[in-house]
Fold these 3 entries.
Entry 1:
Amino acid sequence: MVNTERRKRVMQRSIKLGHCVCDPKQPCPCPVFKEQDVCLCAGEHLESPDAPVKLTELVEKAGCASKIDQAFLKKVLGDVPVPEDPRVLVGVPAGDDAGIYDLGQGRCLVQTVDVFTPSVDDPYVFGQIAAANSVSDVYAMGGRPLTALSVIGFPVRKIPDRALSDILQGGIDKMKEAGVSVIGGHSINDQEIKAGFAVTGVIEKEKIITNSHAAVGDALILTKPLGTGIISFASQIGRAPAASIQAAIRSMTTLNKQAAELMIEASAHAATDVTGFSLMGHLAEMASRSAVDVEITWDKLPWIEGVLECAANGILPGGIERNKESCGQAVVAGTGVSETMADICFDPQTSGGLLIAVAPEKADGLIDKLHAADQAFASVIGYVKSKGTGRILLETDHSRTMPEPVSNACCSGTATSKEPNAAEPQPADACCCADMVSTGATDISQVRQIEANFTNFLASAGRPGGLDAVTKQALNIALSVATRCKPCLKIHIEKARQKGFTEEEIDEAAWMAIAFSGSPAMMFYKENKV
């Protein structure tokens, strides 16, 4: 039951201030109150929706692609003074996967934190991936994780409450698999979902593995396939084959625990885990800090199924360009390495594998043990060539080629639709962008389909999203005046009145357009407002 006295008292205060007291960017009464008769400032709550939710539709950049790019981060951190403490063995200046603090008597503390947006639609699976990704940084240093604190951002009451508990449960279950106790956490009400963990572990001082001791001649081993960023992006736009999505999920939810244990057993010289900065970004960091140059054979890189086909059809996320901007200067592509072949090596990974530098005589044995431990994609991808400045020579032995682009790939029958009411994928000859010329004349049914598609587009553009319904309605009035569309103005004024707009609010929206469009718009509005 609504507490009318409290609502009245709080709203009077907000109206007097001219700002909603729980969201100063909003006026009072706010759109939520106008549309749903709920005053959040007075402690009232919206009903939590119960419809199924697809998490990747709620974020701009999926997974580790949501992280700040490497070059910008280095620039900012370069201006931040770092307190000196001799007990900090690996800290901010090292740019490694985790920090290491000397506890004395040969034991050290390992600490890391990792948070990102969903790379999959299922909340429980997202929680698993967030945990596997967060704990991986401790594994990459050769440490044993012990405890974790969850960190989560969640749009309260905007998606089902159950999604939050499923994310947390997925993370707790994956941490349990890793032998890690989740002992608490922190949450914030955020418009974009984010989740991760702060992880604490231990390590023996003489067994610390950093990213800065790769030696000339070392074999470079990658333990998981690449391409999670490409598949996540393809899924966001409805272009990822179902088998590729499942393969990416299997990879992202797999812990690097066994790989780390085998890496330690093989006395690895250096290691890092491959995440948002891409294979090239993390390898460039390892090479630079180890003062070596390395050579990678593109044909030896393991890929999630469907990645090369996506790349051939131009399905590449923007994170690739950001990573190229950050570390592309370190990469030299050899003869026969096409731009696309090089580009996909900059794909931002989520919960990727370990990149391990190990003595060449131990490489085959380590690969055999990784394969026996169900790390089927583990591969030797290259070698440390010489002392140097951190260059990566990307070569090809021509044993693998990129697939040919698929004609009319935008409507490929293998893609998965992201539209909730979409029909089954259509064959290429039914594609909306197929050739519209039929026997020299335009097919009227295709013209009608275009009209129907445009109508659907208008309806979609008018739905609340980043802008609420009231704001969009005010924009519709303003744009109708600015473009002097008489039917549009009549329709949108009527809709505004149905939504509870006052005449003053309608006039204010119109005068925003008049301020930009001048006297002709003013005369049009005065003549046509009914």
Note: The domain at 57-395 is CATH 3.90.650.10 (Phosphoribosyl-aminoimidazole Synthetase; Chain A, domain 2).
Entry 2:
Amino acid sequence: MTASLRQVFEARSVAVAGASKDPFKAGHQVVRTLLAAGYLGRIYPVNRSEKEILGLPCYSSISQIKEPLDLIVISLPGKVVITVMEEAERRGDVKGAVVLSSGFAETAIPENVETQRQLAEIARRAGIRVFGPNCIGIMSPDLRLVTGFHPGVSLVPGDLGYVTQSGALGGSLVTLALSQPRPLGFARFGHVGNMCDVSNVELIEEYGDDPRIEVILVYLEGVKDGREFMRVAGRVAKKKPVLVLKVGRTEIGSKATLSHTGALAGADGVYSGAFKQCGVVRANTVHDLIAGAKAISMLPKPRGNRVCILTEAGGMGVISMDEVAAGGVLALAPMSRETCEKLTALLPPMAAVCKPDGYVDTSAAAMAKEFGDAMRLVLADANVDMVVLNCIPPTFLPAMDVAQAVVPVVKEFGKPVAACFTVNDTVIETRRYLEENGIPTFEAPDCAVRALAMMTQATFNVSYPLADAPAAHHPVLDRAVSEGRHLLEPEALAFLGDHGIAVMPHVVARTREEAQRAAMEMNGPVVLKIVSPHVIHKSDVGGVRIGLQGSEAVGQGYDQLLGDVKRAAAAASIHGVLVVPLAQPGPESIIGMVRDAQFGPTIMFGMGGVFVELFRDVSFRVAPFDREVALDMIRETKGYRVLQGMRGERQKDIAGLVELLVQVSQLAARYPQIREIDLNPIRVYENGHSVLDARILLDAGPPSCGEGVQIGQPGP
């Protein structure tokens, strides 16, 4: 029977295999740390050569321990780890193991990878849960249990739960939280190391069911199964906040560069979209992660996102407002005229009140009583959901006086208030007093705003369920797969049309005369585009002619297009020329899909032209999804304002784009043979849209050779 993670965290006996008298060895430090922490269970040092270590009797092996044994901490070379695990299997009572040792799969050396596989196999067979290898393991303050040796960690009980893929960084997060004026304690800490058994996703799920944990903090380098992460984190986020510090923001997560989507779909963009989709709150720095957890664990939930900046110093106030605007989560509170008039009457003449709305600069002339009264007026306003209080107390105004004036007011109203008192020795006691009375303090005004923003996200974020669709077949795809190629554009248009996606009228012309006849039937200016399985980016080889009208112009354009393509891509097989009507002008969007290694089919939306090329104004979500998620994607881009209508322009058909996004997400989920989809550009109108170019790349297609033209042997 496999042990539960809770049994491991609540271990009442620990054997340290590899315990040592040498203070520079990990095995010595683990025993010393357990003793110093006051571990409430039994400690069994294991070393064949020693009789005792740090006053504790030593055992030659774990098989010599006659009492029940719950947990083993192993600090031995890889092959010896296997021996210890085999002994644990024979014992039959061991619940968990923490393998401190490195030199396993992280080295990518085949022999070491095999040793880790053997470790995982023994653990699975014996029902022993393994943290690591290459990790410092777990901490449980209630039992004074700690299997690592990070300096400065105190086992202060609290409501935080840590999941980390770095032992050193994880320990630093704990010490940073403990260094707050009122230390932030924790209930559980888990470092997963190589994740041969226990994973970061499983720990998140375990913490979600633990009533002692109110906020889950995750240091994330990556996940093995992105979709499983989303399912688990989505379920947990409905019950309690999940805050993630995801590193590797600049890592290129996709080598596919044949489409705009592939070029833009770095791993970080996909992770950000997945986090939003499953209700996870992302922090960008170590300090923000702790600040967000601090605000969430100390403050009441906000009723909305409207914040008042109550500041005694103009510079701090401006920084706060800048962060509100840049963050995009909070908004300055539209306080009532009555509140603004009362504040004006209360504060010194040089105070700046409601300029802009939601901003109050009391000026340095305000005294403690005026701070308290101003806080009461602000919190009493129904349009204020939370307050940032900034203060640099002058020499004639003790900081503690200000704190004592505002604390009873804040307690009276029960709304979130975050304070920034400038960092120096004169405010240390004041910050501690504020935090002991439920008001979190921060070292900078922008940090206070970001903490409130993360708390607001955690309160109002929605987790969307992620479903998998059964694999489907389509004759167009099956034929291309059997021939080992990507879809030609006419095939892509036919495939999209078969699934209810509106595409432009089109004809494949194989002669000059066919092109002229098709253009005449379209009765207007047309566009000619080369059709070739070996030309990915048509314009790079002169494979596009735009705005041709009249038989002669179309004929000349057809001849010139073929000539240019044959000169630029002599080996390319040409299947004809696509004739389509010239689309009406309008703003352009792009919708794409890539099959991400962790998350599977992932959809991108962005505005076309310079928005995507220069500003990379795009958003990502994992397929499939519904209309609400699709609308979030569009709203997330700066181009959303263009679609809403700017400078007298009417609003475009946003609902139509939403439907198109949903349709593409469903296609991506149903057809695993599709590697990439690029609908670019999509011309958007007041009513409807036009897909001007469609590219669908298949797994069976020819390998990528980078941006530009792909040349191969001529086709049939």
Note: The longest strand covers residues 674-684.
Entry 3:
Amino acid sequence: MADFTEIKGGYHGRLLRVNLSAGSVKKEEIPEAVLRDFLGGRGLGSKYLYDELKPGTDPLSPENNLYFAANPLNGTGAATSCRYNLVTKSPLTGTILSCSAGGHFGIDLKACGYDMVAFEGRASKPCYLYLNSEKAELRDASDLWGLDTHQSTEKLLAATDPKAGAACIGPAGERGVLLASIMNEKDHAAGRGGPGAVMGSKNLKAVVASGSLKTPWRDEEAVAAAKKQWMTFLAEAPLTKDALKEWGTPVLVKVINSYGAWPTRNFQQGYFTDDDSLSAQTFKERFFVKREPCAACAIGCSRLTRTSRRQGKGPEYETIWAFGALCGVRDLEAVVHANYNCNELGLDTISAGNTIACAMELSERGLLDSGSREMIRKALGRDLRFGDPEAIVLLTEQTGKAEGFGKILGMGCRRLAERYGHPELAMHVKGLELPAYDPRGFAGMGLAMATTNRGGCHVRSFLIGCEAIATPVPVSRFTTGGKAGITKLYQDLTAVIDSIGACLFSFFALSPDHYATMLQAVTGIRRDSNELVRAGERIWNLERLFNIREGFTRADDTMPKRMLEEPLPDGHSKGRTVDLGPMLDEYYHLRGWAKEGVPSGAKLEELGLA
């Protein structure tokens, strides 16, 4: 462990820098001030990416860096404290990108004695990194190239340690698909924004971590007390106690649809008339095998599932929506198989479903060119239409393999719609496809998605908690007043949660005080909840500075034209559009940013970013 003065636990103080071009690995110390100010995980990776990446770098060039970052709570056994983060520049959006994933890989990575692994350059041939405690070795992966994530994981564990954590890419990442994810333990995805394509561009197939090193804690007794407090609150909150345990994330299907804000047929509608076919109850009756919680998880929302032909994990709520209602598909088994395709090929389900839905609308409107129509007819035997279950299964396979029409879909919905001259039919923010909440039915989520630093994302400020399920308090979903303040708070707090290693679902039961108490017990840094949230604000502003440096402006903090101008035609949000302008002005003011969305000098000085 590094020679710290203020930090007494939670960190190794070391980074492993892997130069793939040179085939070299070396250890570096991480400055104590960086760990203190940016916490770990997402914050730590964002700090290094901002400092080390030249502006304007091509995300798929050797000059882009990729950071695997562990977190200070990894290995403590605190409830939900298993998550790690990936940070890079997104090839899909051009923004800063951080992705979080569960399973047990984050704990395994931390147990190898590093707080972060930084990859730079490009290997001359396929390789993978094997971490065996503090030992690091680049190994040949030529025999793994072309295999899917399940096959790759099995071979990697057989060649190293059956109990190791393995994060790898599938054919989608190898072939540069811009929707490619990185999968750990086969079915846990660090998925959004195309990090798998960055990994593939580096000829890096996988990272395998098998560690036995323990990170010291500042106060064992205080950690035990904080862990007990977390368990008590998670066991009492309705969502974490019952709903997510019993039904998993698909519990939201009927909830969001009942509000008339479940995006249907590429966001043309907000109400799906047959939600029973896609409900959590139907899902559990037909495909559920057992719960398979992530390491150190007291909630257990993850599900092992099985059809008559295959088995795997999921689908989650977002995936059921993306291949279900968004594509007008009622066949849940087809949705399950599309999900399996994405996990095995290494593909983000939200972006894949969105892009297919966009293609369906383009097709129904007669906007595809003759060559594209011919590719689709050759594969499907018919034109592409909403409600076609065979299409979502076939097109996810083609997209993951970059074959046929899937090669075009692999560019994402923005590039797809632009290709055919109708960018208004792409449902995205900053190039990242939107999630399963129509902002016309949830005003706060509209602002949150418009302002997220990685694009159209729901997990950077999950206002659905208060706007739809009254957690931690109920808030009117249609009002715009006050939404800027809630959005800012949730964004800053989520940056903290991502950077300490907890799961976002812990937010349904825990408060900033709980996170601050736990982190102080582990690290020894005296910091109350306000100071901890301020660290999240620092991370958020740094990410914003990265995007500004890459050319993003206020004009990018917006929603698709459909949300702003086309009222929902049916359901309990009928007639609604997004009134974004006033909320955005208030949001910038509360952030201490200029009207154009640029952080002021005073705000940067206050956060130590000047």
Note: The chain has a mean pLDDT of 96.
